[in-house]
Amino acid sequence: MKYLLLLAIPLAIVSCGPSDEKIQTEVNGKLTGGSVTASVSKGVVTLTGECPDDPCKTNSEASVKDLKGVKSVVNNISVAPPPVVQDAPVINPDAALTGLVSEVVKKYPGVKADVVDGVVTLTGTVRRANLQQLLQDVTDTKPKNTVNKLTIK
Hints:
The chain is α/β, with parallel strands linked by helices. Helices cover about 40% and strands about 30% of the residues. The strands form 2 sheets. Strands 1-2-3 form a 3-stranded mixed beta sheet. A 3-stranded mixed beta sheet has the order 4-5-6.
């Protein structure tokens, strides 16, 4: 009889702790706003979702780990990457572009270039071996676009 009584006492103590449902309610009260959710199983709280930064992730875990009945916290919250900011492409104005393109074209006899509204139009003849380099050199002057009307010899 004493043996059964000794077994019943630890079971009674364990069953007196808060239920997972009660812990879940308290955890949900602590996690307000954002896209962080929690689930509770046998006193273990698992956090999931996404935070905009590391402090949000850390604060979410800290806000629930000391609640009564919480044995441990598994933090599976991901941190959103910062948005990618792309600079607008640099396009030289016509006056500057005309000067730069003129310098490039001087290296290639038989090639002429016209610049209108940031668009470089190449005309004339060029050797096949020089075509790639010519186009690269013109692109390096940062035009809005390049129109190739060259004849290859």
